[in-house]
Design goal:
The chain is mostly helical. The chain has 2 domains: 3-66, Winged helix-like DNA-binding domain superfamily/Winged helix DNA-binding domain (Arc Repressor Mutant, subunit A); 71-217, Up-down Bundle (Four Helix Bundle (Hemerythrin (Met), subunit A)), CATH 1.20.120. Helix content is 74%, strand content 5%. The chain has a 3-stranded antiparallel β-sheet. A hairpin with a 3-residue loop joins strand 2 and strand 3. Helix 5 (98-116) runs antiparallel to helix 6. It is globular. The chain starts with a helix and ends with a helix.
């Protein structure tokens, strides 16, 4: 695979993981070619690779789109993410360093600031950073790598509910409880709080899919 195609793949993955590309969004070869100043050959190479990985999908005579997951796929994904995030929280509580403690406090503060202003976009970004901070604090490189792979598929769905009234406040309260348990060194409590936090998201799959359909109809 060419270096240009690899760079494209990395950027598309990053855009999906950070919410700049949402499930159902179209990727046009001409725009990608112009944006990255490359020919269409590496663009097509990158798209083929991402389709093979299940990240993109192609539609007859319409091109490539960010793949939308089914309700079953989402449920399975949230169940897996809940288990791994819970493990990361327990490990973080058991081995939190001074730097990790400060990073977690900073991440929680960013969530609080965004929540107080009901800034949906900012809270979505702060939420992802909060979870990544806990991943890194677990100090388990294999777990962090697995969670990065899951983020690519799950992150676009995680940010959608924050447009629902009161959800930001509830999420903020859950973050505060998780942080308190980790900072206190209570591994089992941190694990349980994070698991419940993630599974509440999973239980909202019908509303997530409805939000996704609304997003699709608006574009």
């Amino acid at each position: 695979m060419s270096r240009s195609a690899e760079k494209l793949i990395d950027q598309i993955k990053k855009d999906i993981s950070e919410g700049r590309l949402n499930p159902g969004d179209q990727l046009e070869e001409a725009i990608l070619s112009q944006q990255f100043k490359v020919s269409r050959t590496p663009v097509r190479e990158a798209i083929r690779s991402l389709v093979h990985a299940g990240i993109l999908e192609t539609r007859a005579r319409k091109g490539a789109f960010v793949r939308r997951l089914t309700a079953k796929e989402l449920l399975d994904l949230f169940e897996l993410a809940a288990e791994l995030e819970a493990m990361a929280s327990k490990l973080a509580a058991n081995c939190l360093t001074a730097d990790g403690m400060q990073a977690l406090k900073n991440a929680l503060f960013d969530c609080e600031e965004a929540a107080s202003g009901l800034d949906v976009e900012r809270y979505g970004e702060a939420n992802l950073n909060f979870h990544r901070t806990i991943h890194n604090a677990s100090a388990n490189i294999w777990l962090v790598q697995q969670l990065k792979q899951i983020e690519l598929h799950i992150n676009p769905y995680r940010t959608m509910p924050y447009g629902v009234p009161s959800r930001i406040g509830k999420s903020m309260n859950e973050h505060a409880a998780i942080s308190q348990a980790i900072l206190a060194g209570h591994g089992a409590e941190a694990r349980d709080q994070m698991y419940d936090h993630m599974m509440l998201q999973g239980k909202r799959i019908p509303s997530l899919l409805q939000a996704l359909e609304t997003h699709r109809n608006d574009h």
